[in-house]
Amino acid sequence: MILISTQCFPPRRGGIENLMAGLADNIGRAGNEVRVLADRVGGGEDAAAGAYEVRFFGGWKLWRRRRKASAVRSAVRAGGVEGVFADSWKSAELLAGLKVPLAVLAHGMEFPAHPSDAKRARIRKALAAADSVIANSAYTAGLVRPYLEDESRLIVINPPIDAQPEAQPQALSALDKVIAGREPLLLTLARLEPRKGVDAVIRALPEVRRHHPQVLYVVAGKGSDRPRLEALAAAEGVADCVHFAGAVSDAEKAAWFSRADLFVMPARREGDSVEGFGIVYREANWYGVPALAGREGGAADAVIEGETGLLCDAADQADVTAHLLSLLDDPGRLRRMGENAAALARGEGQWRNAVEQFLGALR
Q: Are 188 and 201 within 8 A, CB to CB?
């Protein structure tokens, strides 16, 4: 049996949640018994998911972490556990001395630029218990290294994706009523927070619209930043070409990706918050959609410069606008990038080609 200890797991939505669900699904498909121990986010999550058991732990944060760690140790003592994956150093903090291999995933945001001495000591102690640390990008690996005495335990595996669903006619028809024949269609699908760079795309729209009068920018996702972004679109005089879609279902997500010409998420650093990889870029790629991403952070692993999209200085508005226009003004180049993006996402970017890397890192 392989155990997965995680703070982030469906039904919560997000990149790490998708990654951990994909890890559980694909380790199971590879013929391994899997048990997931996850943080509870509400009622009714105690049902088994697919072919493996999921146990949820609720209550006060420190209390549920202790209960979850105790459950991991109990399972190891009972025998038959080959190893444990932890979704971050926080999930590994109470797992020292397990006597089975422990692999800890690293995503980026959990490693602050200027940690306190106490937090630095906590991270080092947690990672010291790991037999391997799996960073999601070269950028994240750079954040992890100062906390490791033995860098040979560090490996980079870019987060893979499963085959994405095909867009259904009913969902496409509903979206086409919103699109109403406008093009090009720019799409962001993300949790709405400042570091995602949605504001930079909105500020670029007045110039973009001069070149592409029928442009439509769709912002899908929910988050506390939405009121500010709506006000910004109105202030820039582009509210009529920005559509806030809110939280979207999987069917709507597939439909928006199928209709998009360019995925735009010029993520930037906001304090300690930075994009460690950006699995949503690869999800867009599946549908043949190239991407514009920010250069800082791990997006350089997710978006291959000049091949599957472009990287810009997301903190420089002029650079964001210039890169956006350079893509939209050359449809042939955009189409070739889309073809490259689909080939990557549907080939080496899939879980079936990466699951043995994760198992190898554990073993």
A: yes
Do 181 and 308 reside in the same domain of the chain? yes
Whether residues 192 and 317 fall in one domain: yes
Residue-range definition of the domain harbouring residue 104: 2-161+351-362
Q: Are both 178 and 152 inside the same structural domain?
A: no
- Indicate if 74 and 7 belong to the same structural domain: yes
Segment holding 252, helix H or strand E: helix 250-259
CA distance 360 to 52: 21
**N-term to C-term CA, the chain:** 13
User: Is residue 83 domain-shared with residue 33, that is, in the same domain?
Assistant: yes
Residue of 244, 221, 336 lying closest to 290 (CA atoms): 336
CB 133 within 8 A of CB 87: no
Give the tens place of pLDDT for each residue, 271-287.
777 888 999 999 999 99
Say if residue 145's pLDDT is above 90. yes
Q: Nearest 5°: phi and psi at 37?
A: -120, 115
CB 209 within 8 A of CB 215: yes
pLDDT in tens, 211-260: 999 999 999 999 999 999 999 999 999 999 999 999 999 999 999 999 99
Q: What DSSP element (H or E) covers 119?
A: helix 117-128
* 14, 145: one domain: yes
Strand 154-156 relative to strand 132-135, pairing: parallel
Q: Which residue has the tokens 């703070």?
A: 7
Average pLDDT over the chain reads 93
Those residues whose C-beta lies under 8 Å from the C-beta of residue 179, and which sit 6 or more positions away, are 185, 216, 259
Give the domain CATH number at 95: 3.40.50.2000
| Total domains in the fold of the chain | 2
Query: How does residue 48 score in pLDDT terms, banded at 50, 70 and 90?
Result: very low
Q: Global pTM? A: 0.86
Note whether 151 and 266 are same-domain residues. no
| Residue 215 sits in the same domain as residue 230 | yes
Percentage above 90 pLDDT, the chain: 86
DSSP lists the bridge partners of residue 35 as 3, 53
Query: What pLDDT shows up at residue 271?
Result: 79
Place of tokens 């029928």: 214
